Amino acid sequence: MSVRMAPPLPLIFLIMIHGVYSADWGVRYSHSHICALKNSSVIMSCTYTYPTGHQIMNVFWTKDHLRGEEPPDLSEDPEYSQRLQYLGDKQQNRTAKLSHVTQKDEHEYYCRFTTNVTEGRWIGKPGVSLTVTDLQVESPERVTEGDSVRLTCKSSCTLTDRATFIWYRNSQPLTERRDTNNQLLLQSVRREDAGRYSCALHGHTYISPAVHLNVTYPPKNVSVFINGSAEIVEGDSVTLICSSDSNPPALNFSWFKGGTYLKYGQFYSISRISSDHSEEYKCKSINEHGEKYSDAVILNVMYPPRNVSVFITGSAEIVEGDSVTLICSSDSNPPALNFSWFKEDESLAVGSGQSFSALQSGRFYCEAHNQHGSQRSDAVTVTVKGGAAHLLVLK
Fold first, then answer.
1. Model confidence at 164, in pLDDT bands (50, 70, 90)?
2. Confidence (pLDDT) at 22
3. The domain at 304-393 falls in which architecture?
4. End-to-end CA separation in angstroms for the chain
């Protein structure tokens, strides 16, 4: 640093750390260089000495100015006046507090004082060099689940004030986590750790731009969804969809019916479904980190009664006066619960229920019903001859 004194007083320079002295005149700075965070406040302090008998008239901070012109007081500069505050006793020290600093404030600043002696004016050079920095998060673009990752909060210069760092994920503080260094260590990363990370200094409002941490992982939560009605009826079109949570998204899917491979692709479509398609289905999802099967899904295909038939129970030898019990059998889904019995050539039902007791000769058939339809059986003939009734099935 150097001191300039207006002639004709002789100048003697004594260079010291953070200060410059000449005989009884001198200026010392608390810091020769300050690295400050953007939008923060900066404290610049100087102390000075002057010969006995001199009186301090004015002390202020200034910056570079045109040669031959009186250095301007920063407090009178519109660019600084609203942000600069003077502290100190003015007789031996002068401290300037500059608020809301930005990169535009990067200059070298000097302490200037004048005395009651016309030539007794001093400016301490070199002065205080101010550098203003922002914060940037340095992070790998992506990590794999289970790895450890270290994020670094970087500045363009070493901050003058002792820095305590705060970390944020998706704009939320990490449980008030503060690291005395500028690094955040995430051990055994989970997919929940993915997000936008930013950092700040405790006690400051400035927050760094966010950087996205991408956590990759193999397929999880693999499941099969059925596109269409909740109830599948024979003849419907059905599409099965394989869904999984993975990063990167799975692009390889395979389908299985029971243990048999069916096809490749995320979708499996059946244009006209039948009861033959009632089976367990599952899919497999694959990405570059692994694979996983879904739980099995059963396709329950509904259909109306079919293969309806009548058969007799008990002995074929029936004594006159006994009855013949007929039972109606059918294949349907859901199982038929409603049955009607008819005697040929009669329009009205002669009975209901899955079984029917025939007390007279005739041709009888049943009709089975569920919510999807109905079907009637072939007729059987019941004949009573002498002491017995005989059953004859007519095709």
1. confident
2. 56
3. Sandwich (2.60)
4. 122
